[in-house]
Amino acid sequence: MTLRATALVVTVFIGAVAHLAATGRAEVPRQPRIPAEEAAPVSGGVSIPEPVPEIVPVGFVSGYGADQNDPFWSAVAEGMGTAAEEAFAGDATRRYLIQRQEPFHQNAVDLQLNLVEQALALGVQALVVAPLDAAALAPQLIAAQRRGVSVTVIGEVAVPGIPMVAPDHYLAGMLAAQRIQHLLPERTIAIVGTGGAGVSRRDLERRRDGALSVLGPSPEIPVRLALSPDDLSLVLPDLLGRSPSVAGVIALDGPAALAVTAVARELGRTGELVVLAMDPHRRVVDELRRGEIAAVVAFQPRLLGSEALQAALFPGQRGDDSGDVLYLSPIVFANEDLDDETVMGILRNYDLPADTGE
Q1: Counting CB atoms within 10 angstroms of each CB, which of 139, 173, 233, 240 has the fewest?
Q2: Contacts of 16 by beta carbon, 8 Å cutoff, 6+ apart
Q3: Are residues 194 and 294 part of one domain?
């Protein structure tokens, strides 16, 4: 209380005592009007604490990866977190917490079902899932949505009534074929893949089909889809060594690209063989910089995560005319256009180490 306010209170108190002595009646004195700028806070001068925000859990059950720190799915989760912060930047009453769970094998459908159940048991208000088997997960996801959970699926999978956000794998294959066809007109192009590093067999086949839609289905176009990089390495020497007419290779995933460049080095075809890769993991980017890979077709996982969460939080506001379906286009990074800033951008997008030294 300021000196001025104290003096006013004392004056009123003395007047009240005098009135009591003269009349024998107590009179409740009027409180003096104190200017607003001198008034004390209603809490008696103690600062009122900010309200504790409600923690709103958001479930994220990803596709499979090599481990819990798979760079692609880690970047998707980070994109979800950024979208949550931006969507509710002015809301101090809620804070969104992304709870990520990840199966370790593309055939671990039962495990993924259990992970979805665990997420729902935590009371999540939104759920983003990259289904390994849409048919198996559909009843669970539809039931969750009916209970009021906002659900979105990632990937080219159809679950009735649930929004879908997906990388356009077919377009990725088309862009890869157009690029290598431009570099090698009238030459034989091979297509290889392993489905490694978190790329499902379904996605691999969509990329293959997109490439063939440009190159044309023909027995002259060798296609090798192996079960693993090691299996692919067994057939590549024959494909690239005994078939010198194969001038270029579209590698449908990162491990396949690395297997191709390794065999090309063994056969002395580095620099001669044009390799176009997908999924810019660390070693793929290194070989892109060295010129062993001519170009990379890449998706933006942070954008994928951001769009998926927004589709869950704001259903009906995204997608095309066919419903809540949103396809994300890939980006092509060419070796001749590559600079350090672009490399750093690719690495940051995939949560990869910034050091790209050999």
Answers
A1: 139
A2: 26, 27, 29
A3: yes
- Which residue range forms the structural domain that includes residue 146? 54-167+302-328
Torsion of CA 258, 129, 304, 172, to 10 degrees: 50
Contacts of 106 (CB under 8 A, 6+ apart): 63, 64, 132, 195, 200, 201
Is residue 278 within 8 Å of 207, Cβ to Cβ? yes
SS3 322: coil
Taking alpha carbons only, the member of 224, 290, 289, 227 closest to residue 260 is 224
162 and 186, same domain (yes or no): no
Nearest residue to 246 via CA among 263, 228, 230, 227: 263
Question: Could you report the per-residue pLDDT of 137-148, keeping only the tens digit for each?
Answer: 999 999 999 989
- Contact (CB, 8 A) for 116 and 341: no
**Taking a C-beta distance cutoff of 8 angstroms, is the pair 98, 80 a contact?**
yes
**Residue in this structure with the two tokens 């103690």, named with its chain if needed:** 46
